[in-house]
Amino acid sequence: VRRVIPASGRHRCFINGRLASLSVLSQLAEGLASVMSQHEQHTLLDPARQLALLDGYAGHVELLAEMETTYAELKKTQGRLDELRSQQQNRASRLDYLRFQLEELDRVSPRAGELEELEHDADRLRHIELLLSVAERARSELYEDDGAVVEILGRLAEQMDVAAGHDERLRTPARQLAESAAVIEDVAREMRSYVTSLEGDPAALAQLEQRLDELRGLIRKHNASDVDSLVVLMEQLRHEQSRLEHYEEAMDEAHGAVDAARKAADQCAERLGRSRRKAAVTLARAISAELLDLQFAQGGCEIVVDRDGASLSASGCDRVEVLVALNPGEGAHPLRKVASGGELSRLLLAVKRALAGVGPVGTYVFDEVDSGIGGAVAAAVGRKLSEVARHHQVICITHLPQIAGMADAHFFVAKKAVKGRTATSVRCLRPEERVEEMARMLGGHTVTENTRQAARELMSQARA
Fold first, then answer.
1. Is the pLDDT of residue 436 over 60?
2. Average pLDDT in the 325-340 region?
3. If residue 231 lies in a helix (H) or strand (E), which one and from where to where?
């Protein structure tokens, strides 16, 4: 993965040499590096963060997913129950309203597709005279009048059939004319039947118009798109009416669903809690062992997992409290009450060491987590960071020579003004430059041969 951020213009992200979006890069790289800064020291005091660390250590991915699912189902069923409860006060008035609406709709009783049928029938009755006139004229001119089309075609067919005796090429046209005359005769008979079936009935037309007005009025009133939508609305209103009329049964069903969902969520929370309490013992031991290596001679850790005062949520029903004993004779107390800035730095490192085998993290970035410490404690932290670096990449920003001396490589970060602009540079130091910078950390601006020798000794001890 690679990200290029120019001084001007848009940044670019690359995955396997191909352009990618920042969101895709963030999703892919999430968890590959763990950044520990002074800010994260304070997040360590947050009970929610402590709970997340414990779950990460225990590998509760599937249990947490199940907990989220069961809790979401509980919230869903509870919402349904609350909705029914809110309907209780206005149930009677709502039922009256539904009955009124359904009475009107049932009186009209619209049918799917009815509007189109009625409009077609009404249009036919409105133009009955035109239809009769056209049909009568077609019947007369095609078949009944002197010189009708059928008569002309029949005569021509006979004449052409006689002529075909002298030229066979006229045989086919003669047959086609005879067939056409037969078709025209059929059309004329159909027109006779059509005229007989047509009845101009003003009363029927008025009835159709009235029915159309009723349907269109309902469509406008209910803001429907067509009669089919009215039919769907009727079904919805009847369903709601039935539900409200059987309100008590619906309430019982909703209560049962809530009870079942709560039982499932409680059981999942209980399994999650048992696993957390088991993992808490193991994690506390691992952190305690790390504290001893970090100059907490009497250091110890205890992780308490209990349900007192905790409400059920998507993460279960547990409160997690990290207790530490940092001072002899004082016992274990909540982390937020006893740890100073320097102690938090070491505690954070101890936690990260205990969690070193959890997750895909391959790189640790320590951003001045050495604040508030020095001397032998800083040397202990440096040794611990060196141990971490045996299995992970470690990048550490520090101002303490005891920690810097443990590093395998040094990068020097500097700022300077270039043409009125501030520029930051980062470069890897050569061996002799490493000694010089270590001497500067030990002795300040004035570097003497004694400080250089001290720097060499410090770096040599780190390799011992």
1. yes
2. 73
3. helix 227-245
**Phi, psi at 113, each rounded to 5°:** 80, 0
Separation in Å, CA 376 to CA 191, 369, 401, 413? 116, 16, 12, 26
DSSP assignments along 244-296, one per residue:
HHTHHHHHHHHHHHHHHHHHHHHHHHHHHHHHHHHHHHHHHHHHHHHHHHTT-
Residue 72 pLDDT:
96
Structure token digits, residue 78: 């509870």
| pLDDT tops 90 at residue 261 | yes
CB 13 within 8 A of CB 20: yes
Q: How far, in Å, CA of 43 to CA of 50, rounded?
A: 9
Residue 361 has pLDDT above 70, yes or no: no
DSSP letter string, 86-113: HHSTTHHHHHHHHHHHHHHHHHH---TT
Contacts of 99 (CB under 8 A, 6+ apart): 241
Closest listed residue to residue 288, CA positions, set 300, 275, 270, 296: 300
> How far apart (Å, rounded) are the C-alpha atoms in residues 454 and 439?
7
Reported confidence tier of residue 13, pLDDT bands at 50, 70, 90: very high
Handedness of CA 329, 331, 336, 337 (dihedral sign): negative
Residue type, 263: K
DSSP code of 392? S
Alpha-carbon distance 209 to 115, whole Å?
A: 11
Q: Is the CB of residue 264 less than 8 Å from the CB of residue 256?
A: no
Q: What is the DSSP letter of 366?
A: E
